[in-house]
Fold this sequence. Notes:
The protein is of the alpha/beta class. Helices cover 29% and strands 19% of the residues. The chain has helices at residues 5-8, 13-18, 25-32, 49-65, 90-97, 155-173, 219-230, 268-277, 311-315, 351-354, 370-377, 382-390, 396-414; strands spanning 36-41, 69-73, 100-102, 111-114, 126-132, 135-140, 184-187, 207-209, 211-215, 239-243, 282-286, 303-306, 324-330, 339-345, 420-426, 434-437, 447-449. The protein is globular, with a radius of gyration of 21 Å. The protein starts with a helix and ends with a strand.
Amino acid sequence: MTEPLHISLHRTAKYFMDSGRVQTIEEAMDLLKSFGLTIVVGPEIQTSQAAQVALLTLVNLARRTFLAGVEIVGLADAPVLTGLALETCLADTVSNLGGRIASHARSDWPVAVIGSVEMQTPKARAWRVTWQGWRGGVVPIRDGWTMNDDTTMPLAPALAAAVCAAEVFALHAGDHPMAGKRASGLSLWRPGADWIEADETEPALAFLPSRLWLIGLGNLGQAYSWLLACLPYPPGGLELVLQDFDHLALSNDSTSVLTNLGVLGWMKTRRAAEWLEARGFTTYLEERRFGAWTRRQADEPAVALCGVDNGTARAALEEAGFDLVIESGLGAGPQSFRNFAMHTFPGPRRASELWPTTLSAEAPTVSHMQAYLNLKEKGLDACGLALLASRTVGVPFVGMVAAALVISDLLRRLNGGAPYEVIAGSTNCLDDMEVCVGTPKVYEFGFCRVAR
């Protein structure tokens, strides 16, 4: 049975439909099928866990958006060094994530370089994926510089990979004049600061959160899970309550990093639990909607990470009995799908003020665009058109950037840094971030030491 378009359509194809760039769904998909990426890796991939985190994160994000393919050059017989993967051979992990091993870079595809690879800038744009301390991003190869790609903060290489995917997409889409011509990145220690500038206050990780409640296991919730698996947890070091009521649909494969065609139809909670438990975490499932009726029990995790796009659910975040809530949200329409925002509660404003239940969110009006008129002419009824038009544009790399800010906020609190009450920005311009710094407090909600 064919799934309805609103649950099967590729969420990135919807960007080109909603913006009027294409006339039909087929044209939108053909455009995505022209997007490709080559990743060239240096010898560090054999011995560097951080380099492997960058590679696997980039492959995972890119294959969902660049439908011409993701090819990896320079990947010899490397052993797996990161808990992200269960295989023993890195090439097998890359293949299972959707990447293809290649002997050389294509001349017409953009190139991402991880590690010490010397190459002439090809006709296509080329970036170096780089990180240092709590900072990560990309630098055009022609700029001739790089960070030291250290292991201080395991989220930094994952962040750098997400920034790379964002830049490659902007280049392919042709919707930002600086794509491929600029360095782009951010600091997870001091969001809003110059990410290129060295920061001697960045610490090595010593402590990690040990008990968390994840609300929503779509784009953001699966990105939270991926990043938690990047961290150096000891066996049994993290206990998670996973809450969601929905099943995985085909559209989730285009946005959510734990989803593939083999798990479609699964409850989102059960897919996340299987993936996380295979990596040594303990999970408990809550398979119902989050809302005003939800109450945390005294022996359950006191910290919640929220990643839902439902305003009514978000308005109730402070009513469930959590001591700390960190939530993030993503923009939706063709002008704002690259936007992200993070809020913490308690904070300067209550959740019920930010998302009043008396205010209904208005989705951008797109049903007049030619791609929708074409569907109407082909017989799609008014209900189907309305459902399709109401679905958001989505890309996985924006969710990964937002998730990195959320997880790093916990890590800052545990490792001597400042909490942030609000962070907002766009992957189109990471140099322009709005932030509100909170007051440092002792984190007393459960922690463990990093594995050495």
